[in-house]
Amino acid sequence: MSDTFKGKGASRRAFLRGSVAAVAGAAAAGSARAATPDPLITEVQDWASGFGAPVDDAPYGLPIRFESDVVRRNVPWLTADTISSINFTPIHALDGTITPQGCAFERHHSGAIELKKEDYRLMINGLVDTPLVFTYEDLERFPRENHVYFCECAANSGMEWAGAQLNGAQFTHGMIHNMEYSGIPLRTLLEEAGLGAAGDLSDKWVYVEGADASSNGRSIPMEKALDDVLVAFKANGEALRMEHGYPVRLVVPGWEGNMWLKWLRRIEVMDGPVEAREETSKYTDLLADGVARKWTWVMDAKSIITAPSPQMPINHGPGALVITGLAWSGHGRITRVDVSKDGGKTWETARLARESETKALTRFYLDTEWDGSEMLLQSRAIDETGYVQPTKAQLREIRGLNSIYHNNAIQTWHVDSNGEAENVEVS
Amino acid sequence: MSKYLNLSAAALILSGLTAPALADGFGLGREALPEEVAAWDVAVRPDGTGLPEGSGDVWTGEEVFTDYCAACHGDFAEGVDNWPQLAGGRNTLTDDRPVKTVGSYWPYLSTVWDYVNRSMPFGAAQTLSADEVYAITAYILYSNDIVGDDFVLSHENFLDVEMPNADGFIVDDRPETEYPLFSTEPCMENCKESVEITMRASILDVTPDEGNEDAAQDEAQDEAAAAPAADETTTAALDAALVAEGENVFRQCRACHQVGDGAKNRVGPMLNGIVGAPVGAVDGFNYSKAMAEAGQNGMVWTEDELKLFLANPREHMKGTKMSFAGLRKDDDLAAMVEYLKSFPAE
Q1: Which tens digits make up the pLDDT trace of A321-352?
Q2: Which of A60, A238, B41, B329 is 20 to 30 A from residue B280's alpha carbon, by CA?
Q3: Is the minimum CB–CB distance between A265 and chain B shorter than 8 Å?
Q4: Which of B130, B160, B190 is the last residue in one of the domains?
Q5: Under an 8 A CB cutoff, do B26 and A192 touch?
Q6: Which parts of the sequence are annotated with region: Disordered (chain B) (predicted)?
Q7: Which one, of B74, B9, B339, B47, lies nearest residue A275 by Cα?
């Protein structure tokens, strides 16, 4: 079981074997002595003598093969097929905060489409002074901005409402990614079409839809549309990947991922919401009394320990240990993350790797000593509004067990004395 | 409407958003033509805005539904396998396992019309006429016991239909019910007396493991390897590049069809050995009358026949239940047939 998520590559296994040897000497820490000289050091290795790969070996490179287990994975039983489905970012194996596009989770409702820039059109219509059509080239001529934002599916951790289900941070919390976007404020485009015709903007909405067969229409209140929504065409410096909406997607900072329309093709200014399928049948949160909340757009503060975690056991034995994870809030910046090793009895404040950016992932570290005893690891995020990430019990008390979406509860990993971790719930 | 809008009105005044838009803008883009707006602006709203003229009755709806929808959603909209259930589930919203359907959960009928019109059938969206969408919507209402079997739905009586769960929704109230509770100073020490593990993920054991993935990958590799292997068993050598292209095109079919080792019937029949095979003859698959009869009349899937069918399934074979819009490009058709040829009968 502990091997489940380990690399298939022989080298990764060799690495693990090596680490077992290291454990033996760990108690003596820095003063450890090797019994025999390490041949990796004393013998001239192939790579230190012959050639490596030439330039142009891979005009667009992929990660080295030893990292081939750091990939998106799906949970086949969740959906009927992979055309309308979701997979999960390998957050357990990443560090820092930026998610490479190639392993950032995907969610499509009708498959990822191939749409050329030449074939791309964006229409703005409805309550505007002049309905407009833009080509991709037109979009490149508007002033643009760069921002880093997280995108979290409203259903992230949704399988965990009723109890601990999936064994791995990738599966419990991997419907999230964090990228640097280059794009145009939606406000600029709306103003280009002219909002005079809309009159009083306080009760107006924009309706956005994609070019794929699902179209996935969503209604967004005008206040948000004019605030920080971006019409983006680059992510992490390069063109959006097909699966992230090439050539143009919407970025709706801090709000649920379903609203981040991919293959964006139309924006309509309206005097009310459409109440489309994705904002009635789906993405509404059923409460215990049978009534459902709608328009639950904001993703509340949340955090997760990415390592150690079920896919990232402690292989090195007692001694120095880095506990790390991610925290985020749709309401703004993360101001603090606390970590507990005893299931929430006592908490220590973790170190934020950098000053947190608004509505973006924040990396935290707790640099600690492990004595080799069991741990019940938890993390708890606090954002700039003073909101403290709740426990599952607190959420259940208010919402019951059937709301599927917006589970931002504290997660617990049980780490046993072998360093292996499991998804558990605690009292 | 809601406290949300009050809030936003206040915010707008603060940030001066009520001011008119920029004077001149950047002069980019061009004016959208009315025909263009009409083609894309098909959203239908709760008050009926956007509904085209038209009508459809329950019985027509049943026929259309059986042909284009039942393969996934079941003859009575009850859902097949993991595909969505569209009917039933009334009074289950407080159960342990609530069943959320058009009848039990959806607050607006406009959403049904809008979604079916633009997104279904899955794999062939935007191929239904307005009258067909009215008829299907009427049938879904009937399946949910909301209307009788003589009901005719039209743009004129659309707003008269009462949806059972119309009052089942409230606007996000987290700012009142949750945020104050969760915004107190967090405890750092002696936060609870004892901690017990109350549940473990390993008990359920539903986490996919890499072992399975390996198997799936192996299968995929076998599938890829099958292409050159097939060269030896078939008389005409296959064009490997074309096969590879075909594999890409086959992504449009995969929601419904399987090919290769261990392929099974799903929404559509498995397709091993289909090129040259009689039409409608895969064991255990429940064909439409049209396709079954074509087979009984001796029709065979020659390459040409396949191309004609795949270019426009419903035009070429009236009454087929394959709801797929068709492959428009000749290149794709050629690649598709080549790809299918690479999977001989087992």
Answers
A1: 999 999 999 999 999 999 999 999 999 999 99
A2: B329
A3: yes
A4: B160
A5: yes
A6: 209-231
A7: B47
